[in-house]
């Protein structure tokens, strides 16, 4: 799993970073690649790394996460199919809510991605994760369920 610094202007804050990491962890949990991770590890890893990450550099963030869950791959560079993307969006919303981040932040994140799609220097994440109206509409449909997992911090 890898999170590139190019995404940071779009994540903007901890909640935005939780969207990206929740999504990537969901790919791992759903076994979209050879990496495997339990749901419990996913929720603990996400909560742990994000609280540790506040005020620290992206490199530190990534290292802390790798130590916390013992995974090191490049999931973020794989291009998944549309159904896998949809599943990762769905699970990712639930994971970020379980970790204490408002899942509504996912809509704002993908809207920022949308705005960057045709820019001169789109982030690496966009090449494997095209933003589109369908993704945002699907996430909006999944939000009521995800909100039931959100208890705040
Ligand atoms: Zn994905």
Protein described:
The protein has 153 residues and is mostly helical. The protein has one domain. The protein has eight helices and no strands. The protein has helices at residues 8-11, 14-29, 39-53, 58-69, 82-98, 105-116, 124-128, 133-147. It starts with 7 loop residues before the first helix and ends in a 6-residue tail after the last helix. 35% of the residues are buried. Mean pLDDT is 74; it is low at 66-77. It binds zinc ion. Zinc ion is lined by residues 23, 27, 80, 85, 88, 129.
Number of beta strands: 0
Provide the list of bound ligands, each named once. Answer: zinc ion
Principal-axis shape: globular
Question: Uncertain runs with pLDDT below 50, 5 residues or more?
Answer: 66-77
Q: In percent terms, what proportion of residues is strand?
A: under 5%
Radius of gyration: 14 Å
pLDDT averaged residue by residue: 74
Helicity range: 55-70%
Task: Tell me about the largest β-sheet.
Answer: none
Distance between the termini: 25 Å
SSE layout and pairings?
Layout: H1 8-11, H2 14-29, H3 39-53, H4 58-69, H5 82-98, H6 105-116, H7 124-128, H8 133-147
Helix pairs in contact: 2-3, 2-5, 3-4, 5-8, 6-8
The chain binds zinc ion.
């Amino acid at each position: 799993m890898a999170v590139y610094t190019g995404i940071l202007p779009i994540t903007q804050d901890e909640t935005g970073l939780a969207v990206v990491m929740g999504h990537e962890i969901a790919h791992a949990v759903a076994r979209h690649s050879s990496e495997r991770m339990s749901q419990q590890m996913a929720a603990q890893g996400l909560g742990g790394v994000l609280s540790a990450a506040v005020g620290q550099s992206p490199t530190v963030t990534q290292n802390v996460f790798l130590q916390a869950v013992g995974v090191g791959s490049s999931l973020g560079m794989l291009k998944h199919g549309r159904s896998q993307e949809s599943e990762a969006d769905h699970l990712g919303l639930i994971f970020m809510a379980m970790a204490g981040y408002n899942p509504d932040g996912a809509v704002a994140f993908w809207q920022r991605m949308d705005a960057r799609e045709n820019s001169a220097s789109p982030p690496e994440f966009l090449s494997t994760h095209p933003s589109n109206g369908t993704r945002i509409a699907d996430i909006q449909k999944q939000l009521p369920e995800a909100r039931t997992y959100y208890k705040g911090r």
